[in-house]
Amino acid sequence: MLEPLVQNLAFGLLVGALYGLAAVGLSLVFGVTKFLNVAHGELLMFGGYASFWIFTLLGIDPFLTLASTIVFLLVIGLVLYKLLFARMVKLTESVKIQNTLLVGFGLSLILQNLALRLWTADTRSITTFYSGSVFTLLGVRFPIVRVASLVIALVTLLALDMFLRRTYTGKALRATVENWEAATLMGIDIQRVYLLSFVLGAALAGVAGCLVSVGYSIDPVMGMNWTLKGLIVMVLGGLGSITGTFVGGLVLGVTESATGFFLSLTYREVVGLVLFVLILVFRPQGLFGTKEG
Amino acid sequence: MTRKQVTFSALLILIAILAFLPVVVKKDSTINLALLVLLYVSLASSWNILGGYSGQINLGHAAFFGAGTLVTRSLWLAGWNLFPSLLAGGLVAVALALLIGIPAFRLRGIYFAIGTLALAQILYITVGNTLPMISSLPAQSLATYELVPRYYLFLGLTILTTGTAYFLVNSRLGLGIMAIREEEDAAESLGVSALQHKLLALSVSAFFAGLTGGAFAYYHVGYYPQLPFAPEWTFDSMMMAYIGGAGTIIGPIIGAVFFVIVREFLVLKLAELHLIVFGVLFILVVLFLPGGLVGVWGTLQKALARRSRPKEIKLTPTRES
C-alpha cells in the first residue's frame, strides 16, 4: 500500500513542477500587465510542437531544443504583443482584464485550430533512446526525463527569480507590479516593461511546452487544460509570488495524483477545479498569499 | 410612425413569419436549421444578460445549459409533464449559478471568469464519467416524435428570453446592472448594490440558459449527456453576443443568425476553418468594434444622417477620466 502511494506522489510532484512553471508564466504576465492571457496554454502547446519538430526533423536532443524553442516563443510573444495586446495597455484595469481575456480566448481558438490543421489531431510525444530509463531511490522509480524536467523547471525559476531581484530591469518589473503609476513617475518605461514581461511569459510557456512534450504528450487541444491548470495554480499560490506559485503547482500535482490513487483516475482532472472553488470560497488570497485589496 | 413603432411592427412581422414557417416550409432540414438558430439566439441572449449588460464574463455558460438538459431530460423521461420539467431545469441552473456567483462576486477581477470556467469543466468531466451512455428517447416517444412542436417551443422560448432581457434592461434594475458595468465604485456610492445586481443578472441569465437546455433535451433524439456541458456552448454564445453586439438586445440575435449561416457555409467548404474565421472576427470586434455588427450599422446610419442633414452644433458633455 505505502510504496505505490509514495510512487504516485512522486509522479504528482514531477508533473506539479510543470504546472508550476506554466502558472509562473501566466502569473508573471498577469502581475505586471494585468493581462489575463488565456491563450497561455496554446503558447505552451506551440512550444511543445516546436521541440517535437526540431527533434523529429533534425534529430537534435529535446533538451537542447529548449534554446530554439525559447527563441521561437519569444518571437511569437513579440508578434502577438505588437499585433494585439499593445492595443490594450491603456485601458483601465477591469476593462483590461476583460478584454485581454476575450482576445486571449479568440487567440486560443485560432491557435488550436491552426495546430489541428497543420499537425492533425494526433497525440505526439518525443521519444529518445533514454526516454525509458529510470533510476530507483528508496524503492521509488524516477523516470530520468521527468526528473531532468523538474531540474530544468527549477533552474528556470531560479534564473527568473535572480533576474527579478538582482537586475535593474527585473526591479523595474517588480516596481510595476507594486504600483505602475509610481513606477512611471520614477522614469520606468511602462511600455517596455509590459512588452518584456509578455514575451518572458511566452518564453516560459515555451520551456514548459518543451518539457511536456518530452516527459508527457502534446496535442492541439491541450491548451485549455493547461491554461486552466495555470489559472488554478496561480490563484492557489496567491497572485504575485514565484515561489508561492511554484509550490502551488506542486500542491496541485500531488493532490491530483493522490486523488487518482485514493478515488479514481477519472476524478484526477476534477480535483484541481474543486480545489479552486474551495479556495475561492474560503481563502481567496491563495494558500500562501497575504490579505490585500 | 415613431421609431419605436417601426421597430415594434418589424418585430411582429418577424415573429409572424417565424410562426408560419412550419406551415409553409415542409422540409425538415429547413425547420431544423431555423430551430438551431432559435436555440442559439436564446442561448446567446441569455449569456448577454450577464456578459453584455453587467460586464461580467461568464466562461461557464455550458454548465447552466447542461444542467437544464440533464434535469429536464431526466424528469421528462421519468414521466413528468414537459413544462414543470423545464422549470425545474431552469431552477437548478440558477442554484448552480448562485453557488459559484456568491463567492466569486465578492471578489473583483479574474475570479468570476475562472470560477465559472472551473464549474463548467467540473460538470463536463463528472457527467462524462458518471453517465457515459448515450441518452436516447424510448422507442415509444420516437414513434410519435414530431419536429414542429419542438420548433414552436424554441420559438416561444426565444421570445420569452429576449422579451425578458428587454424588460429587464429597461427597468430600474437594468439601469443598476448597466451602471455597475460602467463604473462599479460610482454605482455603489449611489446606493446600487453591485453584488445584488450582479447576482440578479447572473440568475436570470442562468435561468434562461437552463430553459434552453431543457428545450434541447426535449428536442434531441439521442446525445451523450456530457455533450451539452462542452465548452463550445459557452464559447459559441459568447462569440455570437460579441460579434452581433454585446449589451444590446438585437446583437445576440444578429450574431446567432450570422454565426449559424457562416458556419453552415464554411463547414461544407473548409471543415474546421470556421473556428479560425470566428476567432479572428471575435478578436477584431473586441479590439476595434466594441459595438459588434449592430455598432457598425449604427455608425453607418449616423454617417448617412449627417450627410443628409445640415450641420448643427451639438454640445456633448465631456467626461474626465
* Strand coverage percent of chain A: under 5%
Beta-sheet strand percentage of chain B? Answer: under 5%
Helical percent range of chain B? Answer: over 70%
Number of helices of chain B: 14
Question: What's a concise summary of this model?
Answer:
The complex is a heterodimer of chains A (293) and B (321). Chain A is an all-alpha fold and 293 residues long. Chain A is 73% helix and 3% strand.
Description of the molecule:
- The complex is a heterodimer of chains A (293) and B (321).
- Chain A is mainly alpha-helical and 293 residues long.
- Chain A has one domain.
- In chain A, 73% of the residues lie in helices and 3% in strands.
- Chain A has a two-stranded antiparallel ribbon with strand order 1-2.
- In chain A, helix 5 (144-166) runs antiparallel to helix 8 and helix 6 (168-178) packs across helix 8 (190-215).
- The longest helix of chain A is centred in the first third of the chain and has 32 residues, at 2-33.
- The mean pLDDT of chain A is 86.
- With 321 residues, chain B is an all-alpha fold.
- Chain B has one domain (3-305).
- In chain B, 77% of the residues lie in helices and 1% in strands.
- Chain B contains 14 helices and two strands.
- Chain B has a two-stranded antiparallel sheet.
- In chain B, helix 3 (61-77) packs across helix 10.
- The mean pLDDT of chain B is 87.
Layout: helices, strands, pairs:
The complex is a heterodimer of chains A (293) and B (321).
Chain A: H1 2-33, H2 40-58, H3 65-83, H4 93-119, E1 134-137, E2 140-143, H5 144-166, H6 168-178, H7 180-185, H8 190-215, H9 223-236, H10 242-262, H11 268-282
Antiparallel strand pairs in A: 1-2
Helix pairs in contact in A: 1-5, 1-8, 1-9, 1-10, 2-3, 2-4, 2-8, 2-9, 3-8, 5-6, 5-8, 6-8, 9-10, 9-11, 10-11
Chain B: H1 3-24, H2 28-51, H3 61-77, H4 82-105, H5 111-130, E1 135-136, H6 139-143, H7 147-169, H8 172-182, H9 184-189, H10 194-219, E2 222-223, H11 231-244, H12 250-270, H13 273-288, H14 292-308
Antiparallel strand pairs in B: 1-2
